[in-house]
Write a structure and sequence with these properties.
About 50% of the residues lie in helices and about 5% in strands. It is built from five helices and two strands, in the order ααββααα. A hairpin with a 4-residue loop joins β1 and β2. The longest helix has 18 residues. The site of zinc ion has 8 residues, from α3. Zinc ion binds next to α3.
Length: about 110
């Protein structure tokens, strides 16, 4: 007896990322996978372009989702970790460009 295909489909599974898990008690990174994976605007590595819209990640939809879903400290910690990973993958990206793209926007006060 199997579940109907697609009825409980996990969009993150199509993107090759971890299955979303409940937020409580999970690390911030797992929560981000759950939130961003749901809308599909996740980074395609090592190009760091959005899998959904192909713009440089974090694209506006990804930023908006992160702004709405996480407090400022958690958001900044997460994007700082990603900035370090992106800097390794994109050697042509200067430190100033990395900061502007991954961290500066995340420091803004969110709507929540
Ligand atoms: Zn996108």
């Amino acid at each position: 007896m199997g579940a109907a295909a697609g009825a409980d489909r996990d969009p993150a599974a199509d993107l090759g990322v971890a299955r979303p898990v409940p937020a409580a008690g999970r690390p911030v990174t797992a929560r981000v996978v759950a939130v961003v994976g749901r809308v599909g605007h996740v980074a395609w590595r090592p190009s760091w372009r959005c899998r959904a819209c192909r713009r440089p990640w974090p694209c506006e939809p990804a930023r908006a989702e992160l702004m709405a879903s996480f407090d400022r400290i958690g958001r900044c910690m997460y994007v700082a970790e990603l900035a370090a990973e992106a800097a390794r993958d994109l050697p042509g990206l200067t430190p100033a460009q990395t900061y502007a793209r991954f961290i500066a926007w995340a420091r803004r006060r969110g709507p929540a």
